[in-house]
Write a structure and sequence with these properties.
By secondary structure, the protein is mainly alpha-helical. The protein has four domains: about 100 residues; about 170 residues, no CATH class; about 90 residues; about 180 residues, hpI Integrase, Chain A. It has 20 helices and eight strands. Strands 1-2-3 form a three-stranded antiparallel sheet.
Length: about 575
């Protein structure tokens, strides 16, 4: 590993810069050991972008003496001394940014104060621009000044005239025309300036700049926090950019300099948009959840909410938002099921629980809100009759579909479970030759089961004929975004079953209900029946407490006859 890379890796936690535009430690030049007057020094070149911050801007580098002529000893001091030089770079940039920020804030304060005085706001009794003044008082002042600015925009000259006037003003300034003459030329070009004087128009234009609006937003946020009120949120607006021209700030359009930036300095988490917290949440999901299916549902829950609700600020989410969200989903998909709506409700609610735990919000508005009345209700699938089963299996199915249906009718698996089966889950040696499929996670593979009770071993009926044992998936149904194959399988099977049986509430999902009834009619105890279909504790939950053995489940299963499979 190079010396430079090693230093960067060791120092990356220590260098926190004040603004996005500052150079970061990754961009600093690598250190060099250099012999100067009999002793070694650590030398780092000053990046050209920040040389003006050091003396007259001509110094090419910064040095720190090691105090030794022993190279090996000097090398042990490189990291520490380089760190000190990097800190000097950081400090110089941060001090410069603070100075610029102070200058910009002074500009904003001056604009607001002069503008308020020009319009005789509050009869000349101007509130102090400080957090202790009071949020409502400051908000009222801003609203009135914004109203004047809005009126100015509505009465302002046509854009083409204004463009010509601004261009002329820029040319006059660069050509050394006196201010008085430049202003007069500007007036002549634009003509009517609306209900305000030139001075008022100029101040209103400055008030509508990005830096002044950013100053206002920080001030109001600080005042709200001081009064323990919810932090306000602000809509994005098309504000004017300004740039430094000599000692003055002018519209960036008439200056060759880069626009002056004033990033928000005070923005509580609660005022942030949900997308700003997404990555943090996803990181915790990856840490705390093992099942890929669960991870995907949680992430999709947040992403769907951001997409449909236009990424609202965290603090704007109320109980009403629950129902607005449902309405938005039903606008897009009128036949959305209650189950789908519930899944998305659960997904965003889990995110809001996370926000409560982190202290970003006080309560989760989604908790306790019932959505049971919305969306299509879950269909209570009816079981197949024996005649239905004979007709179904009499059909000339493809091998894959016949195998899948045979597994469903003899095991009671959910379609999500059966369509994704792999041969790695098949076992015929562990329990005296009893064949079974395992729906329990292993170190190599996760199973998409509904709940803990569904994690179970499923003995196979002796009449169920399987192909020769292989590897990988039993079926080639398409895997969807949820890592499930049930949608693809159902789309191929259900239309055919609908034609054969001709009953709205009898589809592939009916096989589970069918097996439960067959087991019941064969006098199989409910406990064993539930274990078999995944309605009981499951083999994971019952490990420590015993449960129904595979042998008992197999014996019970054999009481059911499947003449339709022959």
């Amino acid at each position: 590993m190079s010396l430079h890379l090693s230093l960067h890796l060791s120092l990356h936690l220590d260098h926190l810069l004040g603004t996005q535009d500052n150079l970061s430690w990754q961009e600093y030049p690598q250190p060099r050991l250099k012999m100067v007057r009999g002793t070694y020094v650590v030398e780092v070149s000053i990046p050209r972008q920040i040389r003006f911050l050091f003396g007259n801007g001509k110094a090419p580098s910064r040095r720190k003496g090691t105090g030794t002529s022993d190279k090996l000893l000097a090398e042990t001091k490189v990291q520490q001394l380089c760190h000190q030089i990097y800190q000097e770079f950081d400090t110089a940039q941060n001090d410069y940014e603070k100075e610029k920020s102070k200058e910009v804030d002074n500009f904003a304060t001056e604009v607001i104060t002069k503008l308020a005085a020009e319009f005789n706001y509050n009869r000349g009794d101007l509130p102090r621009l400080h957090k202790t003044t009071g949020y409502d008082s400051l908000q009222k002042m801003k609203a009135e000044l914004d109203a004047y600015a809005g009126l100015m925009k509505n009465k302002s000259p046509a854009p083409d005239k204004l463009k010509v006037a601004v261009s002329r003003l820029g040319s006059d300034i660069k050509d050394g025309v006196t201010v008085e003459d430049a202003v007069q030329n500007f007036k002549e070009v634009i003509g009517n300036t609306g209900p305000f004087t030139m001075k008022q128009n100029g101040l209103l234009a400055r008030h509508d700049t990005a830096v002044v609006q950013s100053f206002w937003q920080d001030l109001l946020t600080e005042a709200a926090i001081y009064e323990r009120k919810p932090a306000p949120t602000f809509e994005a607006s098309n504000t004017i950019e300004i740039a430094k021209f000599g000692s003055q700030f002018v519209p960036a359009a008439i200056s060759a300099n880069e626009p002056t930036k004033r990033p928000r300095q005070i923005e509580p988490i609660s005022a942030k948009r949900i997308s700003a917290l997404r990555d943090e949440y996803v990181g915790l999901i990856e840490r705390d959840y093992s099942k890929q299916n669960t991870k995907l549902k949680l992430i999709r829950g947040v992403d769907q909410f951001i997409k449909l609700m236009e990424d609202p600020p965290l603090q704007s989410i109320k109980a009403k938002t629950v129902y607005d969200y449902i309405d938005r989903q039903l606008e897009i998909r009128k036949d959305a099921s209650n189950k789908t709506l519930s899944n998305y409700h659960w997904g965003i609610s889990k995110f809001l629980n996370h926000c409560v735990r982190r202290g970003y919000i006080e309560v989760n508005p989604f908790l306790g809100q019932s959505i049971a009345e919305f969306g299509k209700k879950t269909i209570n699938w009816q079981p197949f009759t024996r005649d239905d089963l004979h007709q179904i299996f009499k059909h000339d199915w493809h091998k894959q579909e016949r195998l899948l249906l045979s597994i469903l009718v003899t095991t009671g698996m959910r379609l999500t479970e059966a369509a994704s089966l792999t041969w790695e889950r098949f076992n015929d040696t562990e329990h005296q030759g009893i064949r079974y499929f395992s729906l329990i996670d292993t170190g190599d593979e996760e199973v998409a089961t509904k709940n803990t009770g569904s994690s179970r071993h499923i003995p196979l009926h002796p009449t169920l004929i399987l192909p020769a044992k292989s590897t990988g998936r039993l079926f080639d149904y398409k895997i969807d975004n949820d890592k499930l194959a049930s949608t693809s399988a159902g789309e191929g099977i259900n239309p055919i079953i609908a034609r054969i049986v001709n009953h709205d509430k009898k589809r592939v999902h009916s096989f589970r209900r069918t097996l439960k009834i067959l087991l019941r009619d064969a006098d199989v105890p409910k406990e064993i029946n539930d274990y078999y279909t995944g309605h009981g504790q499951g083999d994971v939950a019952s490990k420590a407490y015993g449960g129904v053995s595979i042998q008992k489940r197999y014996d019970a299963l054999c009481k059911v006859q499947h003449p339709w499979l022959k």
